[in-house]
Structures are given as C-alpha cells and as structure tokens.
Write a structure and sequence with these properties.
It contains five helices and nine strands. With 122 residues, the chain is of the alpha+beta class. The protein has a six-stranded antiparallel β-sheet with strand order 1-2-3-9-8-5. A three-stranded antiparallel β-sheet has the order 4-6-7, with no helix packed on it. The relative contact order is 0.26.
C-alpha cells in the first residue's frame, strides 16, 4: 500500500502511469459499516480537489465523497455501483471507485503518505 496517497477526507489515490485510481480508505468504510449505495460522477466529468464527487450510504450512515485530486473521470467502477459491499470487502483492490486523468500531478504529492494517514486515524 506504500504507493497510496490519502486525503483528509479518507479517500486514496494511486498513480498508474498517466492515470490515478481513486478509492475509499479502510478507515472510512469501517466507520460507515455495511455500504449499501455508492454514488459516483460520470465518465468525462471534471472533478476538483476537495470538492464533492459522490457519496456512500450504509443502513445507518451517509458520507460525502470529496475528490482527493483534480482531473477528468476516465472510468467508473461499475462493479461497486452494482455491489457496493466491494468497498467494504476490498477497499484497496476491487472496491476502487474511479480512474482519473490528473490535472496537476503535484496534488498527489500533497496528499498524506500511508504512515501519515495511519497516524491521523489511529
């Protein structure tokens, strides 16, 4: 997981070539409980760092999702839309949310390392 960078809003981003994969931290999914609904932006939407990009719902809670980085949505994980519990069972793998083209790669460097994030959440 050392290649993951975390936002204060509990989302992660991982650089893969020219694209970034974005998902929800294990901490956030654990806080929400069993996720029953995932709302995500559409392909082609342009997201701005720290701005709302969707939301997660569980039977007891709801949480807005804030984009960890700015860029254009290149792909949305349709599997998590159909089976939201993937976010609970595999938040760093098959439970990823979307792929983005980064507007400003320096935003990724501004996010927390795994160690910094763990200090914040433990």
């Amino acid at each position: 997981m050392s290649d993951l960078r975390f936002s204060p809003a509990h989302l992660w981003a991982r650089l893969e070539g020219e694209e970034a994969v974005v998902g929800v931290s294990d901490f956030l999914q654990d806080q929400l409980g069993d996720i029953t609904l995932v709302e995500l932006p559409d392909f082609g939407d342009v997201l701005r760092q720290s701005r709302r990009m969707g939301r997660l719902e569980s039977e007891e809670n709801s949480a807005p999702l804030e984009a960890p980085i700015s860029g254009e949505v290149l792909d949305v994980n349709g599997e998590v839309l159909e089976a939201p519990d993937l976010v609970n069972s595999d938040p760093y793998g098959s439970g990823w949310l979307l792929r983005m083209r980064l507007d400003d790669p320096s935003e990724l460097a501004e996010l927390m390392s795994e160690e910094e994030y763990l200090e914040l959440t433990t």
